[in-house]
Amino acid sequence: MTMTPQTRRRFLLASGVTAGAALAAGAGGMGLAQLLRTAGQDRADAPSKKLVLVTLYGGNDGLNTVVPYTDPAYHDARPELAYDPEKVLHLDDALGLNPVMRGMKQLWDEKRLAVVLGAGYPRPDRSHFRSMDIWQTASPAEPVTTGWVGRWLDGTKAAPEAAVSFEPVLPPVLAGETRAGSCVNVGGLELPPGISADAVAALGRGEPGEPELQARAARAYGDLLRVEQLVRDAEQHQSPTPGGVEQEVLTTGPGSRSVLETQLALVARCVEAGVPTQVYSVSLDGFDTHAMERAGHESLLTRLDRALSAFVARMARTEEGRQVTVVVYSEFGRRVRANASQGTDHGTAGPVFVLGPVVAGGLHGEQPSLTDLDDGDLKATVDFRDVFGTVLASVLDAEPDRYLGGGYRATPLPLLTVD
Fold first, then answer.
1. Do 277 and 37 touch, CB atoms closer than 8 A?
2. For residue 90, is pLDDT > 60?
3. Residue range 98-117: average pLDDT?
4. What's the domain range around 362?
5. Are 242 and 316 contained in the same domain?
6. Structural domain includes residue 148
7. Rounded to the nearest 10 degrees, how much is the dihedral formed by the CA atoms of 19, 21, 22, 28?
8. Is the whole model's pTM more than 0.90, yes or no?
9. Of 247, 274, 289, which one is at a domain's C-terminal end?
10. Rounded Cα distance, 241 and 228, in Å
11. Domain co-membership, 270 together with 401
12. pLDDT single digits (tens) 273-302
């Protein structure tokens, strides 16, 4: 049977192949080997500054991440979840990091961690989907179809490798009107029963006369097969890091590094290779802690802490790495008061982390009051678009007001030590 581009596209959607939805939407698929080949261009022309966006899906509990350990209202509102002051990793005489975040505390001591307090937006929405859409499109007032990085890709007429996601599907933040970032799936292919890699490879062959977007989607499936082989190869080999230290590149089996660590290891590899990508997107899921929060949240923060501290330490070893800035955010925080299930429900404002060698460490913004609340929720003290506007200007050398949604004029924050 001969497949037309249309029937092939429908098959790809129905087959359950990971990343099919993103590709069908017109997002660019790219294999890691293909991405690394872009490092062959003239280094002098490649942009030196890089931005890594880390998305915490589910709504991270900011009050148990950056803990107001001296505030009686904190202990009164969540007696079973609150941390004793002596266990918190103190940042100053009022706030401290969760006890499991020892790597982040070291970065704080080295002045490579900035904490933006009370980040949010006007008239907060407690829906996961709508709130994350707001953060990724930078448009709280009305839904839009492009992300703030995607609009930057449009405005700069960027190449596909300018923004890369190491996630299963392309996040909205990288989607523009005429451009989109590329999606490199860490896990390679997940094929449903009855569909072989050979069948997918056959589907990936171009057909004469088909539209460019469909041809690009077809090529992407061939790239995904190459990523799968690359992952298998990486599991069996070591890759030397700067200084001669052997370090595992990528593992995915039981007891291995977390998905976030794997994603950041791939980012590090690309940065060290001189790939011209300017924006990377990675993520960690599971922060919707409605019940039995304490142990689960600590496990998530342990993975986050380990991944971020190792990545920043590795980036500090090379000139390319020292130009990397990391921003960590979630769609919202949690409510101040614990619920009846020893968890917390959807809230509003929360902290944003900014990390890296060029970061001006310290606290930025004002910690929201735990007694002056909006229907039981924190009132945002910093608009998140000021954070994204700052990195647009300082990392991407762009005009923030051009790419933030709804005509918003960002107020720069002193988050970085260089422009």
1. no
2. yes
3. 98
4. 31-40+47-186+250-407
5. no
6. yes
7. 80
8. no
9. 247
10. 23
11. yes
12. 888 899 999 999 999 999 999 999 999 999
